[in-house]
Specification:
The chain has about 250 residues and is of the alpha/beta class. The strands form 2 sheets. The protein has a 6-stranded mixed sheet. The chain has a 5-stranded mixed sheet with strand order 4-5-6-8-7, with no helix packed on it. The longest helix is centred in the first third of the chain and has 15 residues, at about 15-30. The protein has 8 helices and 11 strands. Helix 1 (about 15-30) runs parallel beside helix 2. Helix content is about 30%, strand content about 15%. Strand 4 (about 145) and strand 5 (about 150-155) form a beta hairpin.
Length: about 250
């Protein structure tokens, strides 16, 4: 069996919890353990800036780590690029700098005044001044998937029947039902986040590690060996049992 791979689900601006999870990975797998973060580093939580600071520092220190892009990271990146606040994938039509989506919390973590009476152009200009260039470069450089021999790590999922290199970015970071309905036909175990659950779940062909950090719940770190998984709890690893897909 190949060496285990560790994965961390959506963080959503929770730096303190991320520090805790990184320590759990180190205790279980040692300092050289391969680690994948599944995206959604920012928004909703109190310290998106701190999350990115921490990950930049961990990468500089040589951690064996791949950080993937999630839809919230891409929305932040697009706002930095050209003040884009709307995304056609958001069915509610709400703009990214809205409390429900969490963009306001991200801007506040950088010290930006987000008073709703201020024009968005002013908020954008202040954001460009407040966000370190290294943070923008970090976000711009995030890959969208990591493929191993028998596993695929991705934020949301993929369109079945489409080669990885031909997948649309929007699908990789936003897809849900079309992927879930056909996951059993894919050639990998797919490890993803994006859809917040009360707790991580192993559905057989896919594992969802988004345990709801965006809604104030502890994010999840897991060890993946073959197609088996263990959740790294505070007191040690717990097997994540396979359960049938609903419906």
């Amino acid at each position: 069996m190949s060496d285990p791979i560790y994965a961390i689900g959506d963080i959503h601006g929770q730096r303190d919890w991320l520090e805790d999870l990184l320590q759990r990975v180190d205790r279980d797998g040692g300092p050289g353990a391969q680690l994948v973060l599944l995206g959604d580093l920012v928004d909703r939580g109190p310290d998106s800036r701190g999350v990115i600071d921490l990950l930049i520092a961990e990468a500089a220190a040589g951690r064996n780590m791949t950080v993937l892009a999630g839809n919230h990271d891409v929305m932040f990146r697009r706002f930095l690029a050209d003040a884009t606040v709307h995304d056609a994938n958001i069915k509610s039509g709400l703009p990214w700098p809205h409390r429900r989506l969490g963009g306001l919390a991200t801007l506040q973590s950088y010290g930006v005044d987000v008073d709703e009476r201020r024009p968005m152009a002013e908020i954008h200009a202040d954001t460009l001044s407040a966000v370190p260039k290294a943070h923008g470069a970090f976000l711009a450089g995030l890959p969208y998937w990591l493929e191993t021999e028998d596993k695929l790590f991705v934020h949301a999922g993929i369109v079945p029947g489409v080669a990885l290199e031909d997948q649309r970015i929007d699908d990789l970071i936003w897809i849900r039902d079309a992927f879930y309905d056909a996951a059993q036909d894919l050639p990998w175990l797919v490890v993803h986040g994006h859809t917040a659950l009360e707790a991580p779940r192993h559905f057989g062909p896919r594992i969802d590690l988004d345990s709801g950090a965006g809604y104030g719940r502890m994010p999840t770190a897991a060890r993946i060996e073959g197609h088996a998984a263990w959740v790294l709890e505070a007191d040690g690893p717990r097997p994540l049992p396979v359960e049938p897909e609903a419906g």
